[in-house]
């Protein structure tokens, strides 16, 4: 490809014409996805941009997304679109979209959202973070486009705090997953998490951000727990967005924790960030994806987009590492996860691990899913107790 075409592609990636937003007037917004806003907000603020954070995903957001999306498109798109609409209504004029290659609809999100929003009469710039293009360079170029910040120290400060916050909040989540099924006083783990979520949001110095992870570990360590309780461990896996968004996954981690199950979610924003942004020369350990490709090899020959190969590979890995069960969550009509859904019964049978499938969309009722989750929890708890009794004999 000629360098002229390369330049044009880059220009299109960062700026869609039809807008002429002065740098000082830029108001940045991005889709709500898990805890991503903690990091994005500090990065934007440090580089001198003004962020506009849309409200968390709720029924209202879903209604807006459904109303303005084509029928049959996947649930994450509907919520992303609603986030943009709500942010534009709050004054945003520069929308950030994360993009990745692959054979699912994710590659079309940007163009589809852009066209819909333009038809609705909004004026904005859309900036695409194609994270798989050139990692940190791509992120800095996109951020430079929206902030015009040329101070390298500010970039260092922004990324340092953004990374530290992502790792801190994910540490707090992991500890909550461990503590919740074992806590003596119901609610201790969640209260501790909420407290630290607020502190992480309010911490805005490099030194303060770096200390967060250690302080969180110490604080969770003070929560009284029943160390002898037999707690089964379940892997939660599936599509990236639904795994990270508690509204979309109906807060399944909380439901499981309160039923006495330790959850191990297979996707965390900080892991993804580290893998995607860190130059490969510094990434020496086997990545999550590489491990999944290795474990999925008897069932799939190659990745087909989305998190399909992760779902299959993680299920095999879980079975071989004593995990008690799998819950596979996926949005309705998600192409890669439909493929995984069709492979999992074979994996479950051959590897002897129970799998529960949960398909989520705007029609999904919470009550029906809770009944299924309770039945599954009952099954894994009994299986775990039986296993423990056999070991004692
Ligand atoms: S992985 Fe599934 S839900 Fe996510 S964008 Fe692709 S098709 Fe849609």
Describe the structure.
This protein is of the alpha/beta class and 393 residues long. It folds into two domains: 3-30 and 49-148, no CATH class; 232-393, Rossmann fold (3-Layer(aba) Sandwich), CATH 3.40.50.11900. It contains 16 helices and eight strands. It has helices at residues 3-14, 36-46, 59-67, 75-89, 109-119, 131-147, 152-179, 188-202, 206-221, 240-244, 252-258, 269-277, 288-296, 308-320, 335-351, 366-392, and strands at 27-29, 50-51, 94-99, 125-130, 233-238, 262-265, 325-331, 355-360. Strands 2-1-3-4 form a four-stranded parallel beta sheet, sandwiched between helices. A four-stranded parallel beta sheet has the order 6-5-7-8, with helices on both faces. Helix 15 links the parallel strand 7 (325-331) and strand 8. Helix 7 (152-179) runs antiparallel to helix 12 (269-277) and helix 13 (288-296) crosses helix 14 (308-320). Residues 74, 76, 104-106, 239, 241, 306, 331, 334-337 line the site of iron/sulfur cluster.
Features:
single chain, alpha/beta, Rossmann fold, 2 domains, 4-stranded parallel β-sheet, 10% strand
Which helices and strands occur, and which strands form pairs?
Elements: H1 3-14, E1 27-29, H2 36-46, E2 50-51, H3 59-67, H4 75-89, E3 94-99, H5 109-119, E4 125-130, H6 131-147, H7 152-179, H8 188-202, H9 206-221, E5 233-238, H10 240-244, H11 252-258, E6 262-265, H12 269-277, H13 288-296, H14 308-320, E7 325-331, H15 335-351, E8 355-360, H16 366-392
Parallel strand pairs: 1-2, 1-3, 3-4, 5-6, 5-7, 7-8
